[in-house]
């Protein structure tokens, strides 16, 4: 009995909050508790309050809107106006209490001074006595449409919003699964106000599921689409004629077409049933502008300020060929590259790319110029492992400050695989990225050295209790070669910098020759652990410890770097500012690191 009284008390508070939260909290009323509920209301504007009182008590947005509206000053009310508004408040409270299951509530609203006195005696609620929910037309199994459980049971208070939300959710599910003939054969609530009970009867007929008909593609003028070959349009369509309709398939079709970057806009519409009862699909596309140019500005401590220019022509012809040219300029690095893309088995997920590029690095004490031409097959499914198979022919020239120089040529087959799982979108809270790279060269095939390179990179991110972010990363590399001195400097390993061991200059950690010049190592070991506190939505202080080194031959001690930083989630992406100390160096000097980019 005590538990029942307690539940009733909680329910009464929730019900009366329809008016009380709006009028008391928002409009400045005072209250006095007794066995029933009494409130003295002194609103500045009752019109908005009545509107809000008619809304479900749990709709916080409506309550907040009422707060804003009631801040407006209102003119003094006459006695007749107060009486009219008292009636409106009374009716709103009564109807709202009915919607929450309280059909016997006694409500009185009396003008009092400049405000009103509201007296509510909710009484006993109407409870569900019987529930009968029947499902028809469910003979054919559909894993995406299982008969849901009705949320009200015998003994529950009859809440209209729960009843209505259930029916709306079933209707929405039917539409999304292609059951366009579905309907409620019976939807009835039989009220017995004398016994305060209600019998609910629902009969739902799911009906037959509709199926896809022919898919027709047109341009913005309504003509048959000729901008892309039918082969690729069919590849991008995730369903066949005769498949059962699903709204998910229609969304996927639209997204696939947009992801090709061939089209500026895509509209997908289901048509009326054809002679076979199938529903044709009409796809109208707005062809993208032939050229797209973008200019970017950036900064990283490793390379300083940089400017990038990118030009794209995603669609050159109906076969889906495209071309892209990109360049980047900074104080220590200049590079340019052209890529010609051809769909292989899929315009997005499986392409052949022909590339040619040139780059020049002037880092530390070595200047390197590399020219490369190659071909890649890039397999990039929306989920799972991404793979890149490559063949490159490169020429590399380098010169050190001591005067040492050389020119080398390499023919390099390679394989790269990677996989990313993350949650949180552009600002992830959880995730794991793994990357593996293998490449080789042989003096028997247009190369000046024999070697096999293996490299792996792992990043792991998690968030505890919504505020404590932990980021760990590991990078390992090894080069197998009988003559390591013949391996090109750009192929060797280096450590240090913004994304390696903080506290040390970019590529500072590596073996050195007799002149003290960095020459790169045969082995790479880098590890890092970072903790960031989500202090504010866009600001996160952090502490970190990095360790790593690049070396040749036997094991070498790892260099340590540690420090503090701040993460700013800016409109253009996360900005990372770090102050790091090179612990392993004499005097443990400090270095600033500034980078832009997500942690994974």
TrEMBL record:
Cellular location(s): Membrane
UniProt keyword list: Cell outer membrane, Membrane, Signal, Transmembrane, Transmembrane beta strand
GO cellular component: cell outer membrane; TAM protein secretion complex
Domain Bacterial surface antigen (D15): 328-586
UniProt key word Zinc-finger: no
Record-linked Gene3D superfamilies: membrane protein fhac, membrane protein fhac: a member of the omp85/tpsb transporter family
Main localization of the protein described in the UniProt heading: membrane
InterPro entries in the record: Bac_surfAg_D15, D15-like
GO biological process: protein secretion
Identification of the protein by name: Autotransporter secretion outer membrane protein TamA
Species assigned in the record: Paraperlucidibaca baekdonensis
